[in-house]
Specification:
heterodimer; A: mainly beta; 22-stranded antiparallel β-barrel; B: mainly alpha; two-stranded antiparallel ribbon; two-stranded antiparallel sheet; 8 strands; globular
């Protein structure tokens, strides 16, 4: 954090410190009865941090790490009565003991039985409702705080990788603040980005991302959930599909991630201070050739002569990276008294990226969550978080001012960074990317620049990293106020009013001489979102007898989402200026929208015979994005059942099976049309053809130019519906030392809303319409085991495996394909109907890669002489067509050339706890299958700098015979620069993309951590209960056959686009040392 | 606990009130603050003009000029164009531009032109309607020349024809000749333009001048008759000549785009060079205009437009390694079509200069207006038609008149050129035809019409790139149309031919 940033934050830091002091003094009460004792497990080992409480009196405390607790009961409430005292801890069954309350000390020890299945655990199920895990009829994956913290990820979404079955997380890059993308149980909508709804403490929060420029270029976008401090999280519940998330109606089709933040607990005040420091570096490199120099076909490429012995060569990959660092300070204070609990946290971090240059992120967040019991049955909670993130990023992607694009295309003998560089004449030190003669930025394509505004071809990568500014400054406030009122013994009312405001101030400043905008360019943008959410709930609960209990909830949810976006582009910027005022040409662009939804919902739960749990839910919802020609209100029902069959008498003597549950769930959730889908009007536009940055504006020379909008408004769009059925079992064996869950699910999306392409000859480009069907089906398995458990050593093993198969079932009749992502490499992420497989007539999964390929058999191609399949009937489908001259030729039509969907995902976690002080764990994250378009390699083949171009350099490969059929089959050809390089078909610029689609399977060692908790007497003497020292590794090793930047990379970050690698920034690995002081 | 009762009452009452108030919380969105519900004829006409200019000097111009070797693709995707590596996605925005707002980057095409015509005719502004019809004829005619069969009679009528049928190319041409006749009648009707006060302000080219638009209409008629001369021969030469006699008569009447030095209003070749430096450089035309083949410009010897069209390039002699320090030589030189070609200047052999070839000069300045239809073209149509009809003398006269147009055009830009000094217009027969065709090839520099001229005249002789069997014959139908319009014909190769151009040029 630099001084300027620190001074800006000083008031906030001061306030925070004042709060800590004030709250530390709060909540102390004089006790009249003191209940003390220990909480231990069946083996006598202490259970750390168990909660001990008298629920009827709203009094509780938390045991220390050694299991000791001390519960104070105020004198006014001690009347000699008998009270039930309950001890709870995660992973254990609770124990309730009765005690007679009287003044003085009362000893009470608890022994908790293991509950690895967490059957008693309270699980959030959406819209502020909860149940216990045993009652769940559908899958809810829980991710605990420890797992989030161990991942060492600063972005909560990244932290979920490998933590739950059926969940696929892709981190776009290793940049500080780099975005991440999450998908659950496959892709089922073409409308939005297919991510689940994120809900924090009962209020949905924004997780969009914003890019100033075309997302294929510019900088990697952050997803807004990165504003949430991972240290604040108590637990995360993942509702995987409509069977679980239908209660969110039109926002629940992709599942929901319910995040619960930490709360204060009554009892002693807890204080933690955690100091962390990381060392980050790049974990995979692009191999470059170092034998052949610049020239050959032209001076931009490295197809030139073999470099003479002794020629100095430069490591164009290694030289732009360094060791990055992240320093963090996390503070928290929590506790509570008789009627108040509070949790206050603050987090401050500075992250210096691995790129040599302006790659930095400062993040600060604070949270205060406090609850006041106004009466024994009425409480009010306030829960507020504020986050500020200030970052500077570096241009990447398809962009002549992109870092890796410039660096990796540089010939091996060209030096992009002159050592000890000084200006000619004055001898003053100057940056290494400045030409000493002219004082101007040089690049390999313009090594001797003579003017500020002449083209550099590509920028010098060091200039890109140091001189182009790409800043973000985010202010985010989110939280809610919650009131809970136990109006009657059987009736509870809750009201939650939440708000989420985020403002992102962005700047991209390309000084004059940048290759993207040689005359200089400024983008300044503001992206503001403001959501307000109201939820009102009434829950009635009743136990009729031991065989029948139930609850009924009625609720109302109102939600308003506002988006406002302003981007100003300034061109021809006066050198040295940083503001739009100094741009000769200015192009503003503005967008705003407001969407409202209301939902009324009900849930009925019935518990029968203590083993059969049935639940039915329904939501009725309206949204302002529907047009007037629909009913306006829509129903989203769901139903589930769970049967703990091991409670049957027949299982009483079955000792090997300690628990067994069968469950099923069915539910419907939906999607509303995008805002303004019902309106097609007139607009101003920028005429372009994809080749120009600006084009011609229709507001031209002071005249008002308007055009018809490309989209035809549709006032009759119905909601898109995703129906899910799932069934599964949860089993536990050997006293729950081994547990297993298996789930099968089937999802079908009907009436999917598509921006259906219209023939351009109609004058329109698309109309939003209901009209596609997709399905997703798959299996999810999880296995948890405690293979070893002794007094001093515990080994816990967790494994997850899931598979999902998607299929495009229909696309509005006979439409063959619809693109739903950003075009690149043809059309990444297209919906294609029945054009997959070697014969191009098989069903297609969701979101395949359409692109150019070589002409192959089985496709009915006519290359001018008739159908090649008829001409060469012996050729099998998929075989290459070989032209007269012995070479393959281009297929005139785009084809499905890749499928980015993984075949299966898995993870394996091992945790060892030794002597209760030492903990060691590691997590492998595995993805099998799924293609990536390796555009980086395809482009470097053109330039001749990729290491794999070496065989083709010089005389090339002579006598090569392409395997295929056709008039020239068997002809020997030479593969040299003419074939691989410019003009040839062996690269992606002048040749097809198909050959550069690669399998992107991987095994990643996501996290490793060793921690030791010091709780010896000296720790107490220095003022703490525990000092925990942790050494962690994040993303340490990747095993993959993928040859690009990383099999996990994503050019367009948080969007439907997957499987695109084009000079993306690499992933990083980190070593992190953490000291956690706990009191 | 009296207050508990009140609390309960308050909660129940508050809930009911909130519940009721929420009833109209959600209403369908009825307006979009980011768009406008209506557009005036003037607002649409501004866009339609820009759209026509874009069609003339954008991607279509780039492809045609590289394929017909006025320019050369010298880097990255430019190299792909040079080698005819186009797919059905190439030029997709241009197909959209013809019809309307198919892509977000287009607009002002047939859809908005028809809307404008409807408004104009509805209020009796026949002249305004006529000008819009001329724009329609230009877009549709040029599209039919490069794509052949295309939707026209059923186009931009989504309610009746959601998947429009493709009309035969000949029917499209017949329809636009009729449309131009209507436009001429509209303009000549005298009903009109004075009543539309704003036309003079929004017509960026002619300020609403009827006579200028009439001349454009006649020149376009002549051009489109010429498109079928390869098939119909003398009949069409006669029709073309007769139409051209009413066409654009002086350089001041040229129909050209209006640009400024403001980036968002600047010439598209200027923007392309700015954004895609080196992708496209000078082509074989550089050698053609360097009449004495010495790589230098000599007044009175070489075509005086050479230094106006191109900058001086840098070339490296064969046998030298200029990347290793051997000297580059300043010469006017294009990058020959195909990779790794060499050429001779003054008997010395040079390597293909690639991106070091001559670059665009005047036509790539920000405020340069590209001609859509011109006096030069009009006179050369007369010249070619007369020569084809065997009337060499009027052909020579028209060629002389074309030179006058050219000289006046460049004089208006501040450059004095003398074409008579370097070209002998006294030739006859085939030599005269070749000279006329060559002058059209030079004079219509960067204009997509050069492609149509070459299809007909095959002059100058051009070698297809990379050993291809022929020069490109037509564009592929675009994927966006094919995937959703089952009437779209299949694409085969880029050498496929349209009905109006059955014969490929011989490979030299």
């Amino acid at each position: 954090m630099n001084l300027k940033t620190f001074s800006r934050r000083l008031p906030i830091v001061t306030l925070f410190a004042a709060g800590v002091v004030l709250l530390a003094g709060a909540g102390q009460a004089n006790a009249q009865a003191v209940i003390t004792g220990t909480v231990v497990d069946a083996d006598g080992a202490p259970v750390a941090f168990a909660e001990v409480s008298i629920e009827r009196l709203n009094i509780g405390t938390v045991a220390a790490a050694d299991g000791m607790y001390r519960l104070l009961v105020p004198a006014a409430r001690v009347t000699g009565q008998r009270e039930m005292v309950v001890a709870r801890a995660l992973g254990y069954r609770s124990e309730t003991l009765e005690v007679g309350l009287s003044e003085g000390e009362i000893a009470l020890d608890f022994t908790l039985a293991l509950d690895p299945l967490k059957l008693e655990g309270i699980v959030a199920t959406g819209q502020a409702m909860t149940t216990t895990r045993e009652r769940l009829g559908y899958t809810v994956s829980t991710v605990e705080a420890e797992e989030i913290v161990n991942s060492q990820e600063t972005n909560v979404v990244s932290a979920l990788a490998g933590k739950a079955s059926g969940v696929w997380v892709t981190s776009a890059s290793g940049d500080p603040g780099g975005g991440a993308y999450i998908n659950i149980r496959g892709f089922n909508t073409a409308l939005t980005n297919n991510e689940p709804l994120f809900v924090v403490d009962g209020t949905p929060v924004d997780n969009t991302s914003f890019t100033l420029e075309d997302p294929r270029e510019g900088v990697a976008a952050q997803n807004r959930l990165a504003d949430l401090n991972p240290e604040d999280i108590e637990s995360i519940e993942i509702l995987k599909g409509p069977a679980a998330s239908s209660i969110y109606g039109s926002q629940g089709a992709n599942g929901a991630v319910l995040i619960t933040t930490k709360s204060g607990r009554r009892g002693v005040t807890r204080f933690t201070a955690k100091l962390g420091y990381s060392w980050d570096n790049v974990n995979q490199s692009i191999p470059l050739q170092t034998q052949f120099g610049q020239g050959g076909l032209d001076t931009r490429t490295s197809w030139g002569n073999e470099l003479a012995a002794g020629t100095e060569i430069f490591d164009h990959w290694g030289e732009i990276f360094q060791t990055g660092h992240r320093g963090t300070v996390d503070l928290s204070l929590s506790g509570g008294g008789d009627r108040t609990t509070y949790f206050l946290s603050g987090s401050f971090s500075n992250h210096q990226g691995v790129i040599v240059g302006n790659s930095e992120l400062d993040k600060m967040s604070i949270r205060l969550k406090a609850t006041q019991w106004i009466m024994d049955n009425l409480s009010v909670s306030g829960n507020f978080a504020y986050t500020n993130q200030q970052g500077d990023m570096i241009q990447q992607g398809s962009n002549t001012s992109g870092l890796l694009l410039a660096s990796l295309r540089t010939p091996p003998e060209f030096n992009n960074c002159l050592p000890d560089n000084t200006a000619a004449g004055t001898g003053e030190p100057i940056p290494c990317y400045i030409d000493p003669e002219s004082g101007l930025h040089f690049s390999y394509r313009n090594p001797n620049p003579t003017s500020l505004t002449e083209g550099r071809g590509f920028d010098n990568p060091f200039w890109v990293a140091n001189e182009i500014q790409n800043t973000t400054d985010v202010g985010r406030t989110f939280g809610n106020i919650r009131t809970d009122w136990q109006a009657l013994d059987w009736l509870n009312a809750s009201w939650i009013l939440g708000a989420d405001y985020a403002n992102d101030e962005r700047l991209t400043l390309m000084p004059k001489s940048s290759s993207t905008a040689v005359a200089g360019r400024i983008f300044r943008g503001t992206y503001r979102t403001f959501d307000v959410d109201h939820t009102l709930l009434f829950t009635a609960e009743r136990t009729f007898n031991e065989n029948l209990a139930g609850s009924l909830t009625l609720g109302q949810n109102l939600r308003q989402q506002e988006v406002s976006q302003i981007v100003n582009q300034g061109d021809n910027v006066i050198f040295g200026a940083e503001e739009l005022n100094f741009a000769v040409d200015r192009l503003p662009n503005e967008f705003k929208s407001t969407v409202r939804t209301d939902g009324y919902f009900a849930e009925l739960n019935v518990d029968l015979y203590g083993q059969l749990y049935l639940s039915g839910r329904v939501r009725n919802e309206a949204s302002s994005t529907f047009g007037p020609d629909t009913d306006g209100r829509f129903w989203y029902p769901s139903f589930s059942g769970a049967w703990t069959f091991t409670r049957l008498p027949t299982f009483e003597n079955v000792t090997w099976l300690s628990f067994g549950k069968a469950r099923f769930g069915w539910g419907v959730a939906g999607k509303t049309p995008n805002v303004f889908s019902n309106i097609g009007q007139f607009t101003s536009t920028a005429f372009n053809d994809g080749w120009l940055t600006v084009g011609l504006e229709s507001i031209y020379m002071g005249l008002e130019g308007l055009v018809s909008e490309p989209g035809l408004g549709n006032t009759a769009i119905e909601p898109e519906r995703t129906t899910e059925f799932e069934a599964g079992v949860d089993l536990a064996f050997l006293d729950a030392r081994l547990s297993f869950s298996g789930t099968y699910y089937y999802q079908k999306t009907t009436d999917a809303i598509l921006n259906v392409s219209l023939p351009y000859s109609t004058g329109y480009g698309f109309v939003p319409t209901n009209g596609a069907e997709f399905e997703n089906k798959g299996w999810e398995f999880s296995l948890d085991a405690i293979p070893l458990q002794t007094e001093n050593l515990t080994w816990e093993l967790g494994a997850l495996w899931s598979t999902n198969q998607s299929e495009v079932l229909s696309l509005l009749g006979d439409i063959e394909a619809i693109g739903v992502g950003f075009n690149f490499f043809g059309r990444v992420n297209s919906l294609v109907l029945d054009a997959c497989g070697p014969n191009v007539d098989q069903p297609c999964p969701f979101g395949v890669i359409l692109g150019d390929d070589f002409a192959k058999f089985g496709r009915g191609i006519d290359l001018g002489d008739g159908d090649i399949d008829a001409l060469f009937p012996d050729a099998p489908a998929g075989a290459l067509y070989i032209d007269d001259d012995g070479f393959p030729v281009l297929d005139p039509q785009e084809r499905v050339i890749g499928d980015p969907n993984p075949d299966w995902l898995a993870s394996i976690r091992n945790t060892f706890r030794i002597y209760n002080n030492l903990r060691f764990s590691f997590l492998f994250d595995i993805k099998q299958g799924g293609d990536m378009a390796n555009g980086t390699k395809g482009a470097l083949f053109y330039y001749g700098t990729h290491a794999e171009t070496l065989p083709f350099q010089g005389d090339g490969v002579e006598g090569h015979v392409f395997d295929g059929y056709g008039p020239g089959a068997g002809t020997e050809v030479t593969l040299d620069s003419d074939w691989i390089g410019p003009g040839g078909l062996g690269n992606t610029f002048t040749g097809p993309n198909g050959p550069f689609i690669e399998d992107a399977s991987y095994v990643k060692l996501r996290d490793v951590s060793v921690s030791y908790a010091f709780n010896q007497p000296w720790v107490n003497q220095v003022g703490f209960n525990t000092i925990e020292v942790t050494l962690s590794g994040r993303n340490l090793k990747t095993w993959t056959d993928y040859t690009g930047i990383d099999p996990e990379s994503s050019l367009v970050g948080q969007s439907l686009n997957r499987g695109q690698d084009y000079f993306n920034h690499p992933q990083t690995r980190s070593f992190i040392l953490t000291f956690n002081f706990i009191r | 606990m009296r207050y508990m009762k009140w609390l309960r009452f308050a909660v129940v009452a508050g809930t009911l009130a909130g519940w009721t108030a929420a009833c109209d919380f959600v209403e369908p969105t009825s307006s979009n603050p980011n768009t406008l519900p209506n557009a005036t004829i003037d607002q649409m006409f501004v866009s339609s003009q820009i759209s026509a200019w874009f069609f003339n000097e954008g991607d279509l111009s780039r492809h045609a000029s590289v394929w017909f070797q006025q320019m050369s693709g010298t880097d990255r995707q430019g190299t792909g164009i040079e080698n005819y590596q186009v797919t059905e996605v190439s030029l997709e925005p241009e197909w959209g531009r013809v019809y309307g707002s198919g892509e977000a980057r287009t607009g002002g095409g047939l859809l908005d032109l028809r809307r404008g015509q409807e408004i104009a005719e509805g209020r009796g502004s026949r002249g305004y309607a006529g000008i819009l019809k001329i724009h329609e004829a230009f877009m549709i005619g040029m599209a039919a020349s490069v794509w052949g069969d295309m939707p026209y009679s059923q186009a931009v009528n989504i309610d009746e024809f959601p998947t429009p049928e493709f009309d035969e190319q000949a029917d499209v041409y017949a329809a636009i000749q009729t449309l131009l006749d209507e436009a001429i009648a509209d303009l000549e009707s005298g009903e009109s333009i004075a009543a539309d006060e704003s036309l003079a302000d929004v017509d960026m080219v002619y300020g609403g001048d009827v006579d200028s638009w009439l001349a454009v209409a006649w020149t376009l008629k002549a051009r489109f008759y010429m498109h079928w001369a390869e098939v119909n021969g003398a009949a069409n030469y006669t029709l073309a000549r007769d139409a051209a006699l009413n066409g654009i008569a002086d350089a001041g009447g040229d129909w050209k785009s209006v640009h400024s030095s403001t980036l968002k209003e600047s010439n598209l070749w200027y923007q392309f060079v700015l954004d895609r430096d080196g992708y496209i450089s000078g082509g074989n035309l550089v050698f053609l205009m360097d009449l004495d083949d010495d790589g230098d410009y000599t007044a009175g010897v070489d075509d005086p437009r050479l230094p106006l069209y191109y900058t001086v390039g840098q070339v490296c002699q064969v046998g030298f390694d200029c990347t290793a320090g051997d000297p580059l030589v300043d010469k006017y030189a294009g990058s020959p079509t195909g990779s790794s070609q060499t050429f001779f200047l003054d008997g010395v052999e040079y390597q293909d200069p690639g991106t070091d070839a001559s670059q665009l000069n005047e036509p790539a300045t920000a405020d340069y207006g590209h001609r859509l239809a011109s006096c030069t073209e009009n006179q050369l149509i007369i010249a070619e038609a007369e020569a084809q009809l065997g009337n060499d003398v009027p052909a020579q006269t028209a060629l002389q008149a074309a030179f006058v147009c050219e000289e006046a055009y460049w004089a208006a830009l501040g450059f004095t050129i003398d074409l008579d000094a370097v070209y002998n217009t006294g030739v006859t027969g085939q030599a005269l035809l070749d000279l006329i065709a060559e002058q059209k090839y030079i004079g219509l520099f960067l204009n997509p019409e050069s492609w149509n001229d070459h299809k007909r005249t095959c002059t100058p002789a051009l070698t297809p790139a990379n050993g291809a069997s022929a020069l490109p014959g037509k564009l592929f139908y675009v994927q966006a149309e094919r995937q959703v319009n089952p009437n779209t014909p299949a694409n085969t190769t880029i050498q496929a031919r349209n009905d109006n151009d059955p014969n490929a040029c011989p490979v030299p």
